[in-house]
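hiii, so i know i said id send this last week but things got crazy w the move. better late than never?? heres the sequnce for the chain we talked about at the cafe, plus the structure i predicted for it. fair warning i was half asleep when i ran it
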Amino acid sequence: MTKKRVLFLCTGNSARSQMAEGIVNHYLGQSWQAFSAGVNPAGAVHPLAIAVMAEIGIDLTEHRSKSAEEFRYSAFDLVVTVCDHAARHCPTWLGAGEIIHLGFPDPAAAEGGSAAKMQIFRQVRDAIHREIVMLLTDWDRQSQPQPFAFVAEFA
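okay and structure toks below
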């Protein structure tokens, strides 16, 4: 079985898209291969993104912030923009793949103390988990051949 490929895009590729990539590869890795990139890469994965993903058993310590240009000529089944900035800039440079936008708040913009920031990162992580898994699971169902029902009528 060939895995479907999904690319998650955000502005900096430091939090939201990184979390989405990790979640898909961890929970849906049998049928999906996920990648992530940014339109303006931040240069590193946000330490709080690494921390909240570790809480659910997903290791992002080896991830790096990547430019969308690295994937310009790659084929994807689906491209998901996870922030409004990436959604606006996506059509001008992106290669193959159906584009869907699912916006999530930027947890890196959270204000307050470290506990408050961690809570925001957890909320965004959980929303990404819920929405992305549902999206890709529905995508899998829609791409499956529908069963053929044969009904014979006898007189």
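btw The first helix runs from residue 16 to 27. thought thatd interest u
miss u guys!!
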